[in-house]
Design a protein that fits this description.
CATH architecture: 2-Layer Sandwich
Number of domains: 1
CATH topology: TATA-Binding Protein
CATH class: Alpha Beta
Number of helices: 2
Length: 83
């Protein structure tokens, strides 16, 4: 059974969105597993993350990984902003 999900994350600034997209593109091109595939797009100031997986376990793992990476990138950007 295929499982899929779409997540839309709005960003306050286009620059922030572009940094997140650029940081995640290598992972999208070379995924750690073949059980799930991901696409990243931008719609205005929003990131659209689409994940398609062979099963719900792979879907959940991929979504969790991308959400953690996005959160980490935003934390780093915020830290750099305060430096």
């Amino acid at each position: 059974m295929k499982a899929k999900s779409t997540v839309r994350i709005d960003f306050a600034a286009e620059e922030q969105l572009q940094m997140v997209l650029n940081a995640l593109r290598p992972e999208v091109r070379n995924p750690a597993t073949r059980r799930a595939g991901t696409t990243l797009d931008n719609e205005g100031d929003a990131l659209v993350l689409k994940v398609t997986a062979d099963d719900t376990v792979a879907l959940r793992a991929s979504l969790n990984a991308y959400m953690r990476w996005i959160n980490s990138i935003l934390d780093v950007l915020e830290t750099l902003k305060t430096q």
